[in-house]
Every structure is written in C-alpha cells, then in structure tokens.
C-alpha cells in the first residue's frame, strides 16, 4: 500500500489533490450528519445566529475556500504548506457545495426538492476529482503517446474535438454526460450518437420536422427517467436526507 501510494500519488504530485478530495467528502458528510441531527432536534448542535441572522455554513465555506485557494497559489507545489492549504480548500468547498442549491435559488431550499441539487453537485464533483486523481487528464490528452504529446498540433486538435463533443452532448440536454465527456471522451461519443432529450436545443432545432424522432426521443426520455428516478432519489435521500414533504393546499368548499 505504501509503495502504491508513493508511486501513484506522492511521486506524481497528487497528494494535495487527494487530501483536498478527502477533506471535501468528509466535510460534506459530517455537515450532513450535523444538519440532520439539528433537523431532528437531537444532539448538542444548533443553528448559528448573529444578531438574529441565521449564518449558513456557506459563509465559513467561502472563507475557507478563498484562504485555501490563495494559500495554495502562494505556496510551493510540494511541501507541508501545499498539503495544509489543500485540506483547507477541500473543507471550504465541501461547505459551499453543500449549500449549492441555496446559492442557485437565492433561497433557503436546503430541505426541499430543490435542495437535491446540492447533493447532485457534490457527488458529481467528487466523481470528477476522483477521475483526475486516478490519472484521467481533461480532454483525454493522457491517452496520447509521448511523440504525440510533443506535437502541439495533435494536442490542440484532440482538445478541440473533445470540446466539440462536449458541446454537442450539452446541446442534446445531457448535462452530466457533457461534463464527464471532458474527462472520458468515449462518453461524449456515446452522447453524440444517442437521441437528444425532448425540449433540448438539439431537439427543437433538428426534430422540429421529424415527428418520429420527436416521439422516439420523448419515449426514450420517459423510460430513462422512470427507470432511474427512483434509485437516484433514494441515493440522494440516503446521502443528504429526505426533503420535507410539500404541503398540499386544502380544496375549496363548493
């Protein structure tokens, strides 16, 4: 284990990235545990207030992120300082992205359906950083040989093609696939070949006069969402907690 860690993490200079990822995931998990305890009225924890204002944990998260980011830039690439600032940055990022939905909606939607976006963003971020840590460089440049890497034209063309694939996948309404296609180009190729989601830019532009394509796109999206909506929601509830039920308005008496 020690030999593997030194050869694959320490020697290539990926230790700060590993520390940042570990701090990011642990901070998010610990934060979710604390907020769920506060929600249930258990434990010694409570909301932080100053002058009657509820201080969300995105505030210290921003402070830690800025401190860790600027500290990492100012410090040397290797050494104790870079490791410390990597941990600080990971902790700050975990606190900020845990309340990503609040920033997006500019409202306290932490325990609502909209709050699920925070869990999605955290899982997606951890997965992307994990891919980078495992050796996948953006745009698939790591798949090229040393001779190809010396040829700047090959690198530029590879980046351009993969970026075009990502844009095409995004235009088809597949945001997650577009993000992962930047790291793993074959995902972009799959997304380009498959049908676009209904309502996407691609569907509005190219399926407008193709009723069969529109029907197939709608049917495929329906089956996909029906198949994965339940497992995805259960996973999000297990990680971040189940949202509050939406109150139903009473029917007016006739």
List keywords for this structure.
mainly alpha, two-stranded antiparallel ribbon, 12 helices, flat, Integral membrane protein
State the gist of this model.
By secondary structure, the protein is mainly alpha-helical. The chain has helices spanning 2-10, 15-40, 58-74, 80-98, 100-105, 116-134, 146-150, 152-171, 175-183, 185-193, 201-206, 211-240, and strands spanning 49-50, 53-54.
- What class do helices, strands and sheet pairing give? mainly alpha
The major pleated sheet works out as: 2 strands, antiparallel
pLDDT averaged residue by residue: 83
Tally the beta strands.
2
Report strand %.
under 5%
Gyration radius, in Å: 22 Å
Spell the H/E element sequence. HHEEHHHHHHHHHH
SS field, number of helical segments: 12
Protein name: Integral membrane protein
Structural overview:
With 254 residues, the chain is an all-alpha fold. The protein has a domain at 13-135. The protein is built from 12 helices and 2 strands, in the order H-H-E-E-H-H-H-H-H-H-H-H-H-H. It has helices at residues 2-10, 15-40, 58-74, 80-98, 100-105, 116-134, 146-150, 152-171, 175-183, 185-193, 201-206, 211-240; strands spanning 49-50, 53-54. It is flat and about 60 Å long. This is Integral membrane protein.
């Amino acid at each position: 284990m020690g030999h593997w860690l030194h050869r694959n993490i320490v020697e290539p200079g990926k230790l700060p990235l590993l520390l940042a990822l570990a701090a990011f995931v642990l901070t998010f998990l610990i934060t979710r545990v604390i907020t769920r305890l506060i929600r249930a009225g258990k434990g010694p924890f409570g909301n932080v207030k100053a002058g009657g204002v509820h201080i969300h944990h995105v505030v210290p998260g921003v402070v830690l992120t800025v401190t860790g980011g600027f500290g990492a830039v100012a410090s040397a690439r290797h050494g104790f300082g870079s490791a410390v600032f990597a941990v600080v940055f990971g902790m700050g990022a975990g606190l900020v992205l845990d309340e990503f939905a609040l920033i997006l909606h500019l409202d306290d939607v932490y325990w609502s359906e909209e709050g699920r976006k925070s869990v999605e963003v955290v899982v997606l971020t951890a997965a992307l950083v994990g891919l980078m840590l495992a050796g996948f460089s953006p745009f698939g440049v790591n798949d090229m040989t040393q001779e190809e890497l010396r040829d700047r034209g090959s690198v530029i063309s590879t980046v351009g093609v993969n970026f075009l694939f990502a844009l095409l996948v995004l235009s088809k309404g597949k945001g997650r696939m577009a993000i992962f296609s930047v790291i793993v180009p074959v995902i972009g190729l799959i997304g380009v070949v498959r049908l676009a989601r209904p309502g996407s830019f691609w569907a509005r532009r190219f399926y407008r006069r193709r009723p069969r394509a529109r029907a197939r796109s709608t049917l495929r999206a329906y089956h996909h969402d029906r198949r994965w909506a339940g497992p995805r929601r259960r996973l999000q509830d297990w990680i971040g907690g189940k949202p509050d039920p939406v109150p139903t308005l009473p029917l007016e008496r006739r």
